[in-house]
């Protein structure tokens, strides 16, 4: 009798363990939103984990998500952490390819990076903090003055300094710029970056995006609207909110080094506060965009 009970219990557990993870599944040409709209959840076999794959050929992006045998994924990188893993298997260049695997249910659904289910639970905040939260009048003046000085170098130069630092200090962000055809492991000199016209173009855009926010810093409604717009654009490209954590230190360091500011400069602390607001606004907008599907 005891043995039978034991068997029944065991088989009940076995059934629980047999059912696999749920993974988002799609195979589409287009962005992450296309995948989210047209794909669906699938229950994997119990030896499988979720995966994401992004392939670019010319101007076409192919996104595939689904279940994959965990053995295959171990050969790639088993990624179940909340930050983008530098070891994402990525091959840059004209035949860009990037893939990652993760071992929690639905961990591959929202972004193109692999993150745990827990860390993507949308905590949607509909209100973005106002631009002036925590920013004093003196902070705003410090930001505007320092930006005017930086802008004197030219948007392109400022953007290149920011991207140069980002790609070298946080190389795990490179795969987000698949259109720039960056190699995944070398360090770049500014001169090499200047030779890549797409990097130069993007550098300009990054600097103009910062400049636009500085221009709007005294117009809270416009400022907030612009953060929402930036979040939507990044969500469309499958950028996970966590990536904005890398940009803050990079931006601050670029400002500090190029304006030769001491570490305790009030200008830097003003930028740190402002970047906190910017980051939260963009992250909330990314999450809200994904939540809307
Ligand atoms: C980068 O990785 C490629 C392929 O794995 C390798 O051939 C190349 O030598 C690496 N370059 C550097 C600078 O590590
Ligand atoms: C940049 O391009 C120029 C002209 O094609 C070339 O002479 C130079 O070596 C390149 N520099 C780097 C660092 O790739
Ligand atoms: C701020 O937003 C208002 C209303 O949308 C718009 O009319 C105005 O042009 C914006 N100002 C700037 C500087 O973008």
From TrEMBL:
Name of the featured protein: Globin
Keyword Protein biosynthesis attached: no
SUPFAM superfamilies: Globin-like (SSF46458)
Domain of life: Eukaryota
Record-linked Pfam families: Globin (PF00042)
Annotated source species: Ciona intestinalis (Transparent sea squirt)
Matching InterPro entries: Globin (IPR000971), Globin-like_OT (IPR050532), Globin-like_sf (IPR009050), Globin/Proto (IPR012292), Mb-like_M (IPR044399)
GO MF annotations, alphabetized: heme binding; metal ion binding; oxygen binding; oxygen carrier activity
Domain Globin: 134-287
Signal peptide positions on this chain: 1-20
Family per record: Belongs to the globin family.
Keywords: Heme, Iron, Metal-binding, Oxygen transport, Signal, Transport
Signal listed as a keyword: yes
């Amino acid at each position: 009798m005891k043995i039978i009970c034991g068997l029944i219990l065991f088989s009940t557990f076995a059934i629980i363990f047999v059912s696999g993870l749920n993974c988002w599944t799609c195979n589409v040409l287009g962005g992450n939103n296309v995948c989210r709209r047209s794909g669906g959840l699938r229950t994997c076999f119990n030896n499988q984990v979720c995966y994401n794959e992004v392939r670019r050929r010319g101007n076409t992006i192919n996104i595939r998500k689904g279940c994959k045998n965990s053995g295959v994924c171990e050969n790639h990188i088993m990624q179940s952490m909340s930050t983008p893993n530098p070891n994402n298997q990525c091959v840059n260049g004209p035949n860009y390819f990037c893939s990652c695997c993760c071992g929690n249910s639905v961990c591959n659904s929202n972004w193109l990076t692999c993150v745990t289910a827990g860390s993507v639970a949308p905590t949607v905040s509909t209100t973005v903090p106002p631009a002036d939260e925590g920013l004093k009048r003196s902070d705003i003046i410090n930001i505007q003055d320092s930006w005017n000085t930086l802008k004197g170098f030219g948007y392109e130069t400022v953007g290149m300094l920011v991207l140069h630092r980002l790609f070298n200090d946080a190389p795990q962000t490179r795969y987000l710029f698949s259109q720039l055809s960056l190699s995944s492991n070398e360090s770049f000199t500014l001169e090499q970056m200047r030779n890549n016209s797409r990097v130069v173009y993007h550098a300009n855009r990054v600097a103009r995006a910062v400049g636009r926010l500085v221009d709007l810093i005294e117009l809270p409604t416009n400022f907030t609207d612009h953060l929402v717009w930036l979040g939507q654009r990044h969500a469309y490209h499958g950028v996970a909110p966590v990536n904005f954590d890398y940009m803050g230190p990079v931006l601050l360091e670029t400002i500090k080094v190029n304006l030769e500011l001491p570490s305790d400069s009030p200008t830097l602390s003003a930028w740190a506060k402002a970047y906190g607001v910017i980051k939260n606004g963009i992250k909330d907008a990314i999450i809200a965009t994904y939540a809307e599907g």
